[in-house]
Amino acid sequence: MxxxxxxxxxxxxxxxxxxxxxxxxxxxxxxxxPYPDLxxxxxxxxxxxxxRPEDANSERPAPVGCARCFGPGAEPxxxxxxxxxxxxxxERGTGLGRELVAASLALLTERWPDHDVVIGAQLYxxxxxxxFGFRRDSDVYDDVGIPHIDxxxxx
Length: 155
Fold this sequence. Notes:
Elements: E1 3-7, H1 13-30, E2 46-51, E3 63-70, E4 81-87, H2 96-111, E5 117-122, H3 126-130, E6 135-136, E7 141-143, E8 146-153
Antiparallel strand pairs: 1-2, 2-3, 3-4, 5-8, 6-8, 7-8
C-alpha cells in the first residue's frame, strides 16, 4: 500500500477530516474506548497515511491506515515514539499494520538514529511489537479501559 509522510500543515482540511474520522472509527468507536484522540499533539507529529493503491492518484484518497511519529524532546535520554497506529477492518490481515510499523521505525531511524523508541502498546499486541525488537518496559496499566504496556526498542 502507498504510505505517505505528511506534516500537519501539509494536510488539507479534507485530508485531516478523513484521517481523524478513520482514527475515531477504529480507536474510539470500534474499541469502545472513549479517550481524547484530539490530544493537541497532531501539529507536532509526522503523519504516515496509507491509502489503497487504486486511490493513489485520486484527488481525495481515503486513508485506510495511519500512524503518528514523534522526535525526541530536548531533555537528556529523550526517546522517539509512534502511536495512533490504526488500520481499517477491511485492510487487516494484509500486512498493512506491519508496513506502518516498519515505515514508522524507518522514519525514526533515519531522523533520530541514536534515540530509543518507546511506545504504549495494547497488551494483546506485545508479541506483534516484539517481532520488531520491542521489549516490555512497564507493568500492565489501564488506558481508558484497555490493558496497555510500555515497550522499548533500544538503539
